[in-house]
Specification:
Keywords: Centromere, Chromosome, Coiled coil, Nucleus
Subcellular location: Chromosome, Centromere; Nucleus
Largest sheet: 3 strands, antiparallel
Strand order of the largest sheet: 1-3-2
Structural class: mainly alpha
Helix content: 55-70%
Main location: nucleus
InterPro entries: Centromere_CenpK
Radius of gyration: 47 Å
Family: Belongs to the CENP-K/MCM22 family.
Strand content: under 5%
Length: 360
């Protein structure tokens, strides 16, 4: 057993001083003098036992240091007999130390309590750090588990869809095998007609929903952006009175005056949208900013669709020439619905959603 660390005595003294200071702080002014005298007597006895323990530890350290100095000289003699005598001395010293029972503090020594206190404090510290580490690992494992659960659900849905599709194909193949070629052709024709009617009905529904979205939401926001207001989405609800009043240079809505100058408003419309006849061939006289913006986005969308369907897929001929830099065109680009020509910002085309974006 090697000597104890050199700072053990200082640690014992520090723990003792902390305990005594906490005891003295807990005393109240109402304690009697007899109680104080009793406490001082106990304190003196405790200090005496502590000093005795420290002295015993010092004696043990000194004895072990002397034993090491006697058994391990710094300069090893070259003589083999001297070396053998040295090993015999070390063996006899080791035997004398191990044959004697270890020095154990007396039962009333505070050393055992102090060592237990230090050991418990070390255990609490290590346990706290372990808890923090385990919590961090648990959070990471839970995140990975959640991601794996999402992936598993997706895989199950894909598997279910594929199984349903395979069963449908097998049933269709079995049904076709039992029919003649003319019956199969008639069934295919009826299926195509049914799909066509479904597509036409769905297209009408989508066009109706598209027009309602423009009239109720998109057209006022486009008109506000054209008049110098916030971009589409910056002001969700735009009233007709706000469009009549206009916007300041900072993009804030102006206060509506009681008497609105109709001629000034019409001149402002003509300055922004240009001609007095819109793309649909209808005179713009007397139409509001909202109506003109809605007609413009409809016309631009129709031109893009017609250009995209009239040429080969991915061809550069699908671009539409723009008469001006309009809020409608900027909105379609921001919404990833259309894209400008890489070398000419006056040309616009729909994005082909069947492939990646063009990379130039």
């Amino acid at each position: 057993m090697g000597p104890p660390p050199s700072n053990l005595i200082a640690s014992l003294r520090s723990l003792y001083d902390d305990g005594q200071s906490q005891r003295l702080e807990g005393l109240s002014l109402d304690d009697s003098e007899d109680d104080l005298a009793t406490i001082h007597q106990k304190q003196a006895k405790y200090e005496a036992r502590l000093d005795q323990t420290i002295q015993e530890l010092k004696e043990q350290v000194r004895e072990q240091e002397e034993a090491l100095e006697r058994g391990l000289p710094l300069n090893q003699p070259p003589d083999k007999r001297a070396r053998l005598d040295q090993l015999n001395a070390i063996e006899s010293s080791f035997t004398s130390l191990t044959s004697e029972p270890p020095s154990i503090p007396p039962p009333d020594s505070p050393l055992a309590v102090l060592l237990a206190l230090r050991h418990n404090h070390q255990l609490v510290t290590e346990t706290s750090s372990s808890i923090k580490s385990v919590q961090a690992q648990l959070s990471g494992v839970q995140s990975r588990l959640q991601a794996e659960e999402f992936s598993l659900n997706d895989a199950r849905l894909i598997t279910q869809g594929l199984e349903t599709r395979i069963e449908g194909l097998r049933a269709s193949q079995t049904e076709r095998a039992s029919k003649t070629s003319s019956q199969v052709a008639k069934d295919l024709l009826r299926d195509l007609q049914r799909r066509k009617s479904n597509y036409e009905r769905e297209a009408k529904r989508l066009v109706k929903a598209f027009n309602e979205f423009i009239d109720e939401h998109l057209a006022p926001m486009l008109a506000a952006e054209e008049l110098g207001g916030p971009v589409v989405g910056g002001l969700v609800k735009v009233q007709d009175l706000t469009l009549q009043a206009g916007f300041s240079q900072q993009g804030k809505a102006k206060k509506l005056k009681t008497d609105v100058d109709v001629d000034k408003r019409q001149r402002r419309i003509d300055e922004i949208w240009g001609r007095e006849v819109d793309n649909e061939g209808v005179d713009r006289e007397g139409r509001s900013e909202k109506d003109i913006a809605g007609a413009e986005i409809r016309a631009l969308t129709e031109q893009l669709l017609n250009a995209s369907s009239s040429v080969a897929r991915g061809s550069s001929g699908a671009y539409v020439a723009l008469e001006r830099d309009s809020a409608a065109a900027r909105f379609l680009v921001r919404a990833k619905i259309a894209q400008f020509h890489p070398r000419d910002a006056t040309k616009l085309r729909l994005i082909d959603f069947g492939k990646d974006l063009d990379v130039y």
